[in-house]
Design a protein that fits this description.
Blueprint: H1 2-22, H2 35-48, E1 53-58, E2 64-66, E3 69-70, H3 77-83, E4 91-101, E5 104-112, H4 117-123, H5 128-136, E6 141-143, H6 151-155, E7 159-163, H7 179-188, E8 194-196, E9 200-204, H8 219-227, H9 232-255, H10 262-275, E10 280-281, E11 286-289, E12 310-315, E13 317-319, E14 322-323, E15 326-331, H11 338-356, H12 366-381, E16 421-424, E17 427-430, E18 443-446, E19 449-453, E20 458-460, H13 469-476
Helix pairs in contact: 2-3, 9-10, 11-12
Length: 489
């Protein structure tokens, strides 16, 4: 009976506190991009395709977790970017010029699964061709079994662009139009002479392929050129993903204690994410306490108690298909030690130097060079390294990547331009038994923010989550509704 009362009390406190957070995010239901957005992206790609060509995009395979249980499905980001379609077992083709397919004249066609009441009873309603065309605004949508109708069109093209076809696809014998069968059919179709490159296949009738602006391109670079510049509609959704992640960071800072497990801290983050409509995380959450913070992509999160150590929290909510990527490092006991504070201050100084380089026209690596310079000099001054070159022992990764539909989003890594969103995330990781004074061992610090390049400079989209030592220590002293949760005696 007492446990029941505790749960009721928790729910009352939870509702009250979450209502306060609602003031910072107006709508908890993830938006969807308007069909006009996807249409504009298709047209932008079409303008860059070579004459008499087609680009082909397959949906992501269904990934098996174990036995007859699959992971939650996630659409191929390129296919989603161009169509807004989120279902599996599909293929999309976009043509440079209009082609005749059956009785239709079109420059785009999406092949989807047909409606099937028995299947939908298990997995939910499908769109089918009619609703996909109606709600997505794609000019021609056909059943997947009609893929053969495209044979003659592909045969007569000069160039076909597509990525490496997925090979690790499960063949569902009961479905003769699943991704396995779609890929096989496509492979058997007669196409122009085959050329290849690192990231995609290109079919062409000549050894070189002409693209607009006198350049040679791959499909990957064409999509990177588009996706690296975020449109206003994308930024609106991405900012909400980032705000949700920041709110989680704030609430966890208030709740953290040394006797918490890494997984409990992870759960608090992800609870806040889901409360505000983020269906998933954009990548596996990284919650490293103590020496685990020195493992760059630590996702086990299975330490029973974080203890009186720093906790590195690299967690990003995925909202409306777009993912945040925010990292904060905090002392579980509420107070940075002198050594922790010095390392943290150095990383923060490096990050600020990197952010200042996030200016239009700067090379993509400019933030990294600035951050590395600060860290190299700082580690020398602290006596942790003997030469500046040794800094790479403790700062082994890059400082920035694009952010969007993927946590490491597509882009061509040229000069920074307005509309790009990149991370700035320097770090210092001093593992046990490092070649330095033992007092530094086990300290891992990363600070990561999501930066929008603007016409006049930059905007920190994740500024809501505190970064300064004093701000973090002050916030940890505040009460969190999580601290009032008692689910067992």
């Amino acid at each position: 009976m007492r446990s029941s009362l505790y749960v009721q009390f928790f729910l009352i406190i939870l509702i009250f506190n979450i209502s306060l957070l609602h003031a910072q995010i107006a709508d908890v239901i993830p938006e969807k991009l308007n069909p006009s957005f996807h249409a504009s992206r298709r047209q932008a790609l079409r303008e860059e395709l070579p004459l008499n060509s087609c680009a082909v995009f397959f949906s992501n395979p269904i990934r098996n977790r174990s036995n007859d249980v699959d992971y939650p499905y996630h659409q191929d980001p390129d296919l989603y970017y161009l169509t807004g379609f989120t279902e599996e077992d599909a293929v999309f083709m976009i043509f440079k010029e209009n082609v005749k397919i059956g009785n239709d004249t079109t420059n785009e066609v999406l092949f989807v699964q047909e409606r099937n009441p028995h299947t939908e009873m298990w997995v939910g309603k499908r769109m089918g061709p009619y609703e996909a065309k109606k709600y997505l605004g794609i000019k021609l949508v056909l059943n997947a079994f009609q893929l053969d109708s495209i044979k003659s069109n592909l045969k007569n093209l000069q160039t076909i662009l597509y990525y490496d076809l997925p090979e690790d696809i499960r063949n569902e014998n009961y479905n003769k139009t699943d991704l396995f069968d779609l890929v096989n059919k496509f492979n058997k179709m007669e196409k122009p002479v085959w050329l290849s490159s690192d990231k995609q296949h290109v079919h062409a009738t000549e050894n070189s392929i002409y693209f607009p602006k006198d350049r040679h391109e791959t499909l990957d670079s064409l999509m990177g050129e588009l996706r690296q510049l975020k449109q206003p509609e994308e930024l609106e959704i991405l900012k909400k993903a980032i705000n949700i992640s920041c709110l989680a960071q704030i609430e966890v800072m208030k709740a953290v204690t040394p006797d918490m497990s890494e997984r409990e801290i992870q759960g608090m983050h992800e609870f806040i994410h889901k409360k505000f409509g983020a269906g998933e995380e954009g990548y596996p959450s990284i919650l490293g306490g103590g020496s685990n913070a020195c493992v760059l992509h630590y996702t086990s999160n299975n330490k029973n108690k974080v203890g009186n150590n720093l906790v590195l929290m690299d967690v990003g909510a995925e909202y409306g298909g777009y993912t945040a990527d925010v990292t904060r490092t905090i002392p579980a006991n509420g107070k940075f030690s002198e050594e922790e504070k010095k390392i943290y201050a150095l990383v923060l100084k490096a990050q600020n130097a990197g952010i200042e380089k996030c200016q239009p026209g700067q090379e993509f690596k400019a933030p990294h060079k600035a951050a590395l310079e600060v860290i190299s000099n700082g580690l020398l001054e602290l006596g942790i390294i003997k030469t500046k070159e040794d800094a790479r022992k403790y700062f082994p990764h890059g400082t920035s990547h694009y952010l969007g539909l993927d946590v490491h989003d597509k882009g061509n890594y040229g000069k920074l331009q307005p509309g790009m969103v990149i991370t700035v995330e320097p770090g210092i990781y001093i593992t046990e038994n490092s070649d330095c004074d033992k007092k530094w061992w086990g300290i891992g610090v990363r600070i990561e923010d999501d930066i929008l390049i603007t016409e006049k400079g930059w905007e920190n989209l994740s500024v809501l989550a505190p970064r300064e030592v004093e701000e973090i220590e002050k916030l940890i002293k505040e009460e969190s509704f999580f601290n009032k949760v008692l689910l067992r005696e």
